Amino acid sequence: MSTASTQLPEGRYGRSADERADHKLKIVGGILAVALLALFGYFAYHYVVQNKISGEVITFKATDDDVVKVHLEVRKDADATGYCTVRSQAEDGSEVGRADFRFTGPDTRIDKVVTLRTTALGTTAELLGCHAD
Question: What is the pLDDT averaged over residues 86-104?
Fold first, then answer.
């Protein structure tokens, strides 16, 4: 004697609740992936294309208790003008100096040693950012 099956015939009465939930999760996941990709593209565009001036600290040296010499390398578009903000901190982490250094002219790569005045011995030199005018 055989026992009767308690399950409905497969495919006869539409999709199950699990299949509908899986389908909705796939749609939501796809939308989130597209939104994340668009956000990534937006930030990449503004970082690479719209950034007309950028720089980095090559070296620095505290030459006195109130002076830090900072070697900056700045890259910019030929027609761009702007400034870079540099700060120095003491050994305890307190800020002892901050200044903006302006870069103009047609050069696209500028290597320059700038003098940052400090209120105490500076043990760091940090580029906070460069901004086009």
Answer: 91
